[in-house]
Every structure is written in structure tokens, then in C-alpha cells.
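anyone seen this seq b4? input:
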Amino acid sequence: MSLRIAGQTIDERFLHHRLRSTSYAGITVAVSALLVFAYRFYIQHVWSWDLLAVGAGFVAVKLCLMAWYSLTD
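predicted toks r here
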């Protein structure tokens, strides 16, 4: 299957690669936020609530989507 966008043909392989790269980027950023939070907490003894919120938000969204896809598949 191919899509025609702005005069260019884009096939589903491109869309699949974009989906995978976006997923990996999101996971990498969330894990990095959790690691920086852990470093600041254990080494510097400072609570970084913003980093904890980013990491926890990612975990919550990921688990909800996994449950949704499991139930609706």
C-alpha cells in the first residue's frame, strides 16, 4: 500500500519505520528522565518532581496502551 502526500508516494514501510523510531525515541527519553531522577535522588539527595512526573507519565501511558491493545486485539 502506498499513500500520495504532497506529490510524493510514501509506502507503508516508511510509515512503519517512522512509528518504530518514534516509539524508541519516547522510550529512550522516558528512561533517561528516570535515570536522571534516580541520580539526583541518590547522589545529590534532591527530589526532581518534574523528572519523576515525566517518567511516571510515560509508564502509565505505556501500560494503559498495552492493556488497551491487548483487550481490543
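Helices lie at 12-42, 49-72. The chain has one domain: 2-72. kinda curious what u guys think
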